[in-house]
Write a structure and sequence with these properties.
142 residues, 5-stranded mixed β-sheet
């Protein structure tokens, strides 16, 4: 990770720094959420150097796929293509409201466009996005 990107993560725009890394990430031979998680975990370790990346983070009611620098949750969702998967994601996001940091929802595979719109509407309604100073949740589609 370049010095500017690392400073962006550490000081200014943590989700923006993660999204910049997601742009660079090239997952290969991934067919399910676990494969994508392993690939992303390895990639982030290489890119972030001394910044802690924790896989399958659990604290209280929070269960996250990845936590970066103890400040950003990365929640992966592969093939968000059913109402059941959408409802599970919304339930997780409700739990993350107590998290003091920010959340990046990473959508991989096929995402139903209507469920994506529904997710965006939910995030706006709950005040988790489009905050003038800082979004609580950022959605990134790979």
């Amino acid at each position: 990770m370049g010095l500017l990107a690392k400073l962006k993560f550490q000081v200014w725009d943590k989700p923006g720094g993660i999204v910049a890394l997601l742009d660079k990430w090239k997952p290969r031979d991934c067919s399910n959420e676990r494969d994508f998680e392993k690939s992303l975990y390895a990639f982030l370790h290489l890119e972030l150097g001394d910044i802690q990346v924790t896989k399958q983070y659990a604290k209280g009611r929070i269960r996250a796929d990845l936590v970066i620098g103890d400040t950003v949750i990365v929640e992966l969702k592969h093939n968000l293509d059913s109402t059941a998967k959408y409802q599970r994601l919304v339930g997780q996001l409700m739990e993350y409201k107590e998290w003091k940091g920010q959340t990046v929802v990473l959508l991989t595979g096929k995402t139903d466009p209507n469920l994506r719109k529904k997710l965006d509407t939910y995030l706006k309604k709950e005040g988790l996005t489009e905050d003038i100073l800082e979004d609580k949740v950022t959605v990134y589609q790979k």
